Amino acid sequence: MNAPAKPRPRAVITAHANADFDALAAIIAASRLYPGAALIFPGSQEKNLRNFYIQSTTYLFNFRAFKDIDPTDVELLVIVDTRQKSRVPHVQALLDKPGIRIHVYDHHPDTEEDVPAEYSLVKSWGSTTTIIIHELMSKGITPSVEEATVLGLGIFEDTGSFAFNSTTPEDFDAAAWLRRHGMDLGVISDLLARDLSSEQIRVLSEMIESAKTHDFHGIEVTIAEVSTEEFISDFAYLVHKFIDMENVRVMFALGRMGDRIHIVARSRASDVNVGFICSFFGGGGHGYAASATVKDKTLSEVRDELLALLYSHINPQITAGSLMTKPPKVIDSDRPMADAAELMTRFGLKSVAVVMPGTMRCVGLLDQRTADKAVGHGLKSVPLAEYMVTDFTTAAPTATLHQVMEIVIGKRQRFLPVVENGMIIGVITRTDLVNLLVEESARIPETLLPDPKRDRNIRSVMRTRLPGSIIALLEQAGLLAKELGYKVYAVGGFVRDILLARPNLDIDLVVEGDGIRFAHALSQARQGRVKEHQKFKTAVVVFPDGQRIDVATARLEYYEYPTALPTVELSSIKMDLYRRDFSINALALNLSPGHFGQLMDFFGSQRDIKEKTIRVLHSLSFVEDPTRILRAVRFEQRFNFRIDGQTLRLIKNAVQLNLFSRLSGARIAHELQLILDEENVLECLSRLQDLKLLAAIHPQLHLDADRTRVLMELRKVHDWYRLLYLEPPVNTWKLYMLGLTMGAERDSLELVCRRLRFSDRELREFLALRDLLGESLARLMTWAETQSSMSDIYFALDPLPVEGVLFLMARSRREIMRKNISQYLTRLRTQELLIDGSDLKIMGLKNGPNFARVLRKVRAAAIDGAAVTRDKQVELAKSLIRGLEPGGSGTAEPQTAKKPRHQ
């Protein structure tokens, strides 16, 4: 039975996501102006509104889900109670539709992202419903009793039952008109006058406990915080309750609910426009009432940014020009690294602006740590332009305090050049901001304080993305560490992949304490065993079920010279994370009881994950360990991220310095093997080629058109083979190495293998495989469909391991040959003979080379369909043996079908 056709309306009416009663009422009111329009309810998180909508509205009005209509014929989109594009994502398909006409009705202030409209009716009245009601009044359109009541709900809620200062005479007029048409005040009273549940009372109590009042030049602003794993219904209503109870003039309530931060703001002070403040968080509203929802930020990050916004908003006279230090200390980009280190040491600078030689045009930033480490690595003569940071933000002298704080705090750029007419005229440091705010320490954002903590807790996310057994293991690790007086953290890729919702049970633990002692305690608690590495203060715990966990003592690694193996010193978790390769891997997850699931993010890791960016933690990262470059490419392609501009420049610099030539072949081979095991192997290799990294490993490694084609086909045939669950499993490294070195001369291939430190046995096996491939390929090239048999295919491929067979399948351009090879892999190679050597002995054949010759000819006949039963194979074997007897020709051949059987 065919599904019913979707409705095809010509007009659609909707409102903003997370709708309130005013949005719902405005949709219904607008439906009287646009008869026949489909009403799209955008969803709401307010419990009362949702229940009312479900129980009543769907039965009374023409509401639909957007997915249930066919937008093909929609010509007109009507948006009410908002104009912001970001607040109507549920009808994005209509916004993008060419030629769509848009009408808007709204009572909110203008914003930069307002959708362009053919018709716009915007008035600063108490509710959008009021605006549309006046249109109904002017056109003589009267509502039903049910409509009048719903429309009244919109007005009463948005005006606070006419108690908000935003209420206008027009709101009273609209309510009076609705009352005359049957508006039921009892229903409105029941819906708006709510009894608090025990959970809401708990939340309100937490708001009161957490509330702090900040004085911004005589204007008091109260900020309250709530944190819970569940959604808090009617959060805005609780904020109103708080304001009434505490007589607050300006209020910001921050509610962490699961992985989102909800902001509800109210203001009775003309100097504080909460709509303007909330717009910075992607929300909106009026100067007196606004809200926003923030993803991928912690509660403390939102609070810090809010404080910075408020401080800047209420103190507009503070600008970058009044904060900066001038004249700035600068250094030309062509000066050696030693000069930069000496300059910063002499003047006690932590960073310095780098300018184009002979000018004040700022082209980079260099910090003291990078300069000192570069000198320590023997790079004192290298121009500092090679390692300066080129991806940075500048500020104009007229920039507001908030804009400055957004760069220094939000982007974590501790050193800010102030630029006018393209020339640097001053600098602002993080210390400058601290000094400015030190007299009002309650307002210093935590991100400006030493060793800031990130209080985002992802315990609930962990429970949805990790097996219960792993959660139990991590909790036990935290308890054991506490008993020993230590702290333990899960770190690196395991934490990263929890945030990315990718499966990864490869757990690395870092202990602030004795990691090896902790490993033994964990092993004993779970009947495991421990492998120690005293030199590196690390251990591996292996449990009876095969689960392995790497345990390390929190440590700082330093490198005595470029590409050296690291020397280890004991350190803290923050310094341990700083030694990581990229910011996305510099995350730690606290496993301690009471803090389980708390995310430690000191280096902007969450931001880079959100922005899909691969970024090194310092400029000398690739000098210390060039293999990180290969990991950068691997992560970039695996996660579909991008290597950021500064990191990309450092990669090119490492190639120019020929740092790969100093690396051992074993380290390169290990990283290359990991790349060849990636799902996006071809994309990884193409990226390595683009960055000249393949040639840096060995000049014979390069991608031409033939190798690229074969590598593409190798991925297809490998996926095909894997999906069939055939045995034996493929050695992916060997398979793709065949493609990557295809066409190389034998001597050149040997040089590549020796550069990658193949063992003597590995080298012999790989070269032998290449020789076998040449022989098999020659036999396959002479195969003709009308003149050759399937047994010829079998015997050409039988000497090869599965990697060689798949390589020939990918290399072949003949479809018939690819089909034949697939038959070999799926059927022929596992097809067993129905006779064996014991049968030949019974027939009187003595041991010797003739055994193999007879069985080979019987197998050929079986493959080609001439001897598929045991009787046929026995008869053929006897015939062959007779031909070998004295007096016989010794060359008897079975009558096999030359035409191959394609099945």
From TrEMBL:
Residues 884-903 are annotated as: Disordered. CDD domains: NT_ClassII-CCAase. GO terms for molecular function: metal ion binding; nucleotide binding; nucleotidyltransferase activity; tRNA binding. The keyword Magnesium applies. Residues 324-381, 388-446 form the CBS domain. GO terms for biological process: tRNA processing. InterPro entries: CBS_dom, CBS_dom_sf, DDH_dom, DHH_sf, NT_sf, PolA_pol_head_dom, PolyA_RNA-bd, tRNA_nt/polyA_polymerase. It comes from the Bacteria. Keywords: CBS domain, Magnesium, Metal-binding, Nucleotide-binding, Nucleotidyltransferase, RNA-binding, Transferase, tRNA processing, tRNA-binding. This is tRNA nucleotidyltransferase (CCA-adding enzyme). It comes from Humidesulfovibrio mexicanus.
